[in-house]
Write a structure and sequence with these properties.
Elements: E1 3-10, H1 23-37, E2 45-48, E3 55-62, H2 66-72, E4 78-79, H3 82-89, H4 94-102, E5 110-117, H5 120-126, E6 130-137, H6 146-150, H7 154-160, E7 164-178, E8 181-192, H8 195-201, H9 205-215, E9 220-226, E10 229-230
Parallel strand pairs: 3-4
Antiparallel strand pairs: 1-3, 1-5, 2-3, 2-10, 5-7, 6-8, 6-9, 7-8
Length: about 230
C-alpha cells in the first residue's frame, strides 16, 4: 500500500514563503526541487495552515509500486518506497537540504508516515480548494478496525455535508505525544469547497451524531485547514 509522509514545518518569524521574491520562498522552492530530484520522488503538495500561517504542511507520497501508481494517479507524486526516502536521508544531498531548510525553520519539524484509505481519494482531498487535516491521538495503538469503522462516515458526508468533495483516513507508523497522550495518530484529510462549508457542516445534527465514528477511542484531536498547492 502507498505510504504518505506528512510533515509540519514551523517557520521562523519573518519567513514569508508567500512572497516569491523572499529568501524563504526561494529556499522552499530549492528544497522542493531537491526532493523531486531524488530517486523515486516525483513531487510534493504543500501549503500553509490557514489557522496558523507560521506552520508549513507538506504531503509526500511513498509507494512500493510507484511506476504503476504514477501512471494511474497523476495528481499525486510518489517515492518508490520508504527505503528510497531513507536513502535520501543518507545521501550527500541531505546535509545541504537540512542546512538550507534550517534557514527558514523555527524548530524541528513533525514527520509521520501514513497509509491512507482509500488511497485514490487522497489526491481528491489535497486538490480541493480547501483541505481539512485532522489528527486523532490515541494512547498506544488504535483498534485494528479503527480505519474501516471510521470510514463508514463517508455516506453521511456525501448525503449531508454540502461542499464535501472527498477524503481519506489512515494511521501513522510513528507514535506522537500531545497533551499527555502518546501513541499512534489517525490522520484524516477531507476536501471541501471552502473552509466555511466545513464549518457549516460542523453545526449540523449529522455531524454531531456521527463524529464519534472518526474519533473512535482517540483521546485528543487537532484540526486545521490548508489550501494545498502541487509542486510542478
Amino acid at each position: 500500500m502507498p505510504t504518505i509522509e506528512v510533515v509540519v514545518f514551523p517557520l521562523a518569524e519573518g519567513a514569508d514563503i508567500g512572497d516569491p521574491d523572499s529568501n524563504a520562498a526561494k529556499v522552499l522552492s530549492e528544497n522542493i526541487d531537491l526532493i523531486k530530484q531524488q530517486p523515486g520522488a516525483q513531487g510534493v503538495h504543500f501549503g500553509l495552515q490557514i489557522e496558523n500561517s507560521s506552520l508549513l504542511q507538506l504531503f509526500i507520497s511513498t509507494s512500493t509500486a510507484s511506476i504503476l501508481r504514477a501512471a494511474f494517479t497523476d495528481h499525486l507524486k510518489v517515492w518508490e518506497s520508504i527505503d528510497a526516502h531513507k536513502k535520501f536521508q543518507g545521501s550527500e544531498s541531505y546535509g545541504p537540504f537540512q542546512k538550507k531548510f534550517g534557514q527558514i525553520l523555527a524548530s524541528k519539524p513533525t514527520i509521520v508516515h501514513v497509509d491512507f484509505e482509500p488511497y485514490s481519494s487522497v489526491a481528491t482531498a489535497l486538490g480541493a480548494p480547501c483541505t481539512e487535516v485532522a489528527s486523532f491521538y490515541f494512547n498506544g495503538t488504535p483498534p485494528k478496525s479503527y480505519v474501516s469503522d471510521a470510514l463508514k462516515i463517508e455516506p453521511v458526508l456525501k448525503q449531508h455535508a454540502a461542499g464535501y468533495i472527498g477524503g481519506a483516513l489512515g494511521v501513522s507508523y510513528e507514535e506522537l505525544e500531545r497533551d499527555g497522550v502518546k501513541g499512534q495518530v489517525g490522520v484524516l484529510v477531507l476536501g471541501w469547497e471552502s473552509k466555511a462549508k466545513h464549518m457549516e457542516f460542523r453545526e449540523t445534527s449529522a455531524f454531531r451524531e456521527n463524529i464519534g465514528m472518526l474519533r473512535g477511542e482517540s483521546k485528543g484531536i487537532e484540526m486545521h485547514h490548508v489550501q494545498f498547492m502541487e509542486a510542478v
